[in-house]
Design a protein that fits this description.
By secondary structure, the protein is mostly beta strands. The protein has no helices and 26 strands.
């Protein structure tokens, strides 16, 4: 049985629960999914700094850099042409910086929550409904998205789920067997090469010689911080997994490649933020609409949404005991 609870405090937590699994959402802070727990075991990267109000220009590394945010209309900061002039999109987009508003639905109080967030750099609005259910001895998290253009001119956009799952040494990333190469977006210290390089999966050559198994999670002091993309993906390449023997669970992310044909991987074992202080130790499994972080980098993946139009897509997360 699923349920939704409201905790009235400075963070305005909304807690969804189904059996031993619970999920905490923070509408005030970008609709962030701040926690996914199985029992007392946390599955998401926890805050590197206190969760606090954000500005429209701060870098993501100035924030808590935790949990699950939605990156829209770009992951990387950039400028793009728009009808009213060049739109300046900040780091990791608009939506993690703004408060989201609740939407009443027929599933209210039955393990689901719907929220709406408005961009400020472009006239875009994203609705997201989250539902949590017990399923076959584990749990299923379903997310349905609806993007709308509220303006009077076509708006460019790209989206990526920014789900930072905790990872410990010995955990493993699993991709469909048909995926043998990835595009490198960036690599801390240039360990894997430079932006745009093609990297073999799972065994990749290091720029300095030798090779590394990208599928195997490393200790938190490894200094690794790599962003890679797979795709465009076919109909059967619609999933990825993080197998966590250390936590006793397998996390499987499913998506529709006809709507979100790329998969981003953020693999970080102490390699980011680059400044002094706490570091991320996580693997982000990121269904995406583009194989690049910047909306300003155009290609056959580039998208525009006509005024008054909407675009819908969905993704799922299955959490199963090992």
């Amino acid at each position: 049985m699923s349920s939704v609870g409201q905790q009235t405090d400075e963070k305005e937590n909304v807690i969804i629960s189904a059996g031993d699994c619970s999920l905490t959402v923070l509408p005030r802070f970008g609709g962030k999914i701040a926690s996914i727990k199985v029992g007392e075991r946390e599955l998401l990267q926890q805050p590197l700094a206190p969760i606090a109000p954000r500005t429209r220009t701060m870098g993501f590394d100035e924030s808590d850099a935790s949990g699950w945010d939605e990156c829209l209309p770009s992951v990387a900061a950039c400028g793009v042409e728009f009808a009213s002039g060049q739109a300046q999109i900040p780091d990791h987009g608009d939506l993690w910086r703004v408060g989201w508003q609740p939407i009443e639905t027929k599933d209210e109080g039955r393990g689901a929550i719907s929220l709406r967030g408005k961009c400020f750099s472009l006239p875009l609005e994203l609705e997201r409904t989250i539902a949590l259910q017990e399923a076959a001895g584990g749990w299923r998290l379903s997310l349905a998205y609806r993007l709308a253009n509220l303006g009077s001119a076509p708006a460019p956009w790209s989206w990526a789920a920014h789900a930072l799952f905790l990872a410990e040494a010995g955990d493993r990333i699993v991709l469909p067997e048909t995926i043998s190469t990835l595009r490198l977006e960036g690599s801390g210290g240039g360990l894997l090469g430079k932006n745009g390089d093609v990297v073999s999966w799972p065994l990749a050559k290091l720029a300095s010689g030798g090779e590394t198994d990208l599928s195997l999670a490393l200790p938190p002091d490894s200094g690794v911080g790599d962003k890679l993309f797979a795709g465009p993906l076919g109909a059967k390449e619609n999933w990825c997994e993080l197998v966590r023997p250390s936590a006793g669970v397998k996390i499987r992310v499913g998506f529709d490649p006809s709507a979100t044909p790329y998969l981003g991987l953020w693999i970080c074992y102490g390699g980011w933020p680059e400044k002094d202080g706490l570091k991320q130790t996580c693997v982000a499994l990121e269904p995406s609409t583009a194989p690049v972080d910047s909306l300003a980098e155009t290609g056959p993946w580039s998208r525009q949404l006509a005024p008054g139009k909407q675009f819908n897509w969905a993704m799922q997360v299955e959490i199963d005991p090992l």
